[in-house]
Amino acid sequence: MTIHIYNTLTGKKERLEPLEPNHVKLYVCGITSYDFCHIGHARSALAFDMIVKYLRYRNYKVTYVRNFTDIDDKIINRAAEQNTSSFELADRFIHEFYTDMDRLGIDRPDMEPKATEHIQEMVQIISELIDKGMAYQAGNDVYYAVETFSEYGKLSRRNLEDMQAGARISVNEMKRNPMDFVLWKGSKPGEPKWDSPWGEGRPGWHIECSAMSRKYLGNTFDIHGGGKDLIFPHHENEIAQSEGANGCSFVKTWIHHGFVTIRDEKMSKSLNNFLTIRDLLEHYHPEILRFFVFSTHYRNPLDFSELAMQDATAGLERLYAAIAAVDALTTDGRSDSDSVITDKDRQQMLSIEERFQKAMDNDFNSAQAQSVLFDAAKSINRILQGLPPEPASDDLVFLHATRDLVKKLAAIMGLLEEDAQTFLDAQKQKMLSAIDMDEVTIDNLIEERRLARSTKNWARSDEIRDELLAHNIELKDGPEGTSWTVKRTS
Question: Which residue range or ranges hold the Cysteinyl-tRNA synthetase class Ia DALR domain (predicted)?
Answer without folding.
Answer: 355-424
